[in-house]
Amino acid sequence: MVREVRIVEEVEIPENVSVEVNGSVVKVSGPKGTIERDFSHAKKVRISLQDRKVVVETHFARRKDKAVVYAVAAHIRNMITGVTKGYRYWLKIIYSHFPITVKVEGDKVLIVNFLGEKSPRVAKIVGSAKVKVQRNDVIVEGINIEEVGQTAANIEQATKISGFDRRVFVDGIYIYKKEFMEG
Predict the structure, then answer these.
(1) pLDDT for the residue numbered 1
(2) Rounded to an integer, what distance in angstroms lies between the CA atom of residue 146 and that of residue 157?
(3) Three-class secondary structure assignment of 72-131
(4) Please, are residues 55 and 47 in contact by the beta-carbon 8 Å criterion?
(5) Which pLDDT score is estimated for 89?
(6) Kind of pairing between the strands at 33-38 and 25-30
(7) How many CA atoms lie within 13 A of 22 on its CB side?
(8) What whole-number distance in Å separates Cα of residue 142 and Cα of residue 88?
(9) Domains of the chain, each with CATH number or no CATH
(10) CA 98 – CA 112 distance, rounded (Å)
């Protein structure tokens, strides 16, 4: 078992972004909004601010501790990207048998007439993600990549079918593009 003495990962902070570190809680503010995240589950990792960088480090790291350092740094990078650009996922509504209708009501997405079913299928919108329906596209936007990704996954999962041949019954809602909002 080999341990590395010190593992350090630095994350650059852009000019229009401010980062606060309070113990294991990281708060990132930018032009699009604010994201706060608690990294208290990463016990051996120390997060600090030095100059215009967030420094994530650990000492005498095993392989898993090293992976946690890089994962925490990646989460902070995603938070910075979210408050500067934002995230957008595109989903395509595909049907060959029954026309599907998608509606947004509060914090739920209703999928009506999927495979001719009488009751609508429901997908939960997570956190502050915003969902829009344009013709055959469902657009999920937000500043937190985890909320946007989970909302898109919930919509895709709500139309998952089993017991049918996937080559014939292609009906569903599928993620086909992921991008930054850029403005």
Answers:
(1) 65
(2) 16
(3) HHHHHHHHHHHHHCCEEEEEEEECCCCCCEEEEECCEEEEECHHHCCCCEEEECCCCCEE
(4) yes
(5) 97
(6) antiparallel
(7) 7
(8) 7
(9) 4-84 (3.90.930.12), 88-180 (3.90.930.12)
(10) 10
